[in-house]
Design goal:
The chain is an all-alpha fold. The chain has a single domain, classed as ACP-like (Non-ribosomal Peptide Synthetase Peptidyl Carrier Protein, Chain A, Orthogonal Bundle), CATH 1.10.1200.10. The protein contains three helices and no strands. The mean pLDDT is 88.
């Protein structure tokens, strides 16, 4: 990804993904992993997006995220909406 992301979004996503039982592994490898590799089903994805909204006030539409969306792409969506 060409734009550097604040560590805060990645750390928050790591925390939230762990909370919902995703297989996150090492936080340093997490940013470029697609959500499909984290064993998220559609219900878990909805739960993740609700937690993102709850913790950040940023609402990410479920249509904006699919199984190939990477954690860093999701962090970028959060970052862009926070700074908009």
């Amino acid at each position: 990804m060409s734009q550097a992301l604040p560590d805060g979004e990645i750390a928050l996503l790591h925390q939230l993904l762990t909370e919902i039982g995703a297989e996150v592994g090492d936080q340093t490898e997490l940013p470029e992993r697609p959500l499909s590799e984290l064993n998220l089903d559609s219900l878990s994805l909805l739960e993740l997006l609700m937690l993102v909204d709850e913790h950040t006030g940023v609402e990410i539409p479920v249509e904006a995220v699919d199984s190939e969306t990477t954690v860093s792409a999701l962090a970028g969506m959060i970052n862009r909406q926070r700074t908009a």
